[in-house]
Amino acid sequence: MAHNGMIGVSVTAVIAGPIAIAVSRVAVTVTGALIVNGRDSNATLQIMAGVGFVLFAATACFSALALAFRFAAGRWPILDHISENAYGIYFFHYPFVLWSQYLLLGVAFPAVAKGLVVLASTVILSWGACLLTSQILSWISLLFRQRAILP
Question: Whole-model pTM?
């Protein structure tokens, strides 16, 4: 086995990959049978569909984590900056979401395009509001420090 653990990662990928594909295939097949049969389907089939869906969701979550650990290991400065301002962005986002949706009501765009416009405008405006508030607070802090130093 290699010192950096690459063989362990490869074995895990070789084992987990086919299992994930099989679980998702079972979930899709059973759910498809449920949709075709409707409410009159067998209770066992409904239980299998529920369990299959849960297993599929768990597999998808672990697969997303594995992909993130494997391919997103590097640092991105823009994401670091967003991470540092995450609470401020969360704090200011709601009015921007509401008003950008309201402003787009009369526009004849597809829903996906409107959603992307709302997402982009909300992130940019709430991030800007967060940065502006941070700058104002730092100016006020400097102002009070200077007054405290002067006699």
Answer: 0.55
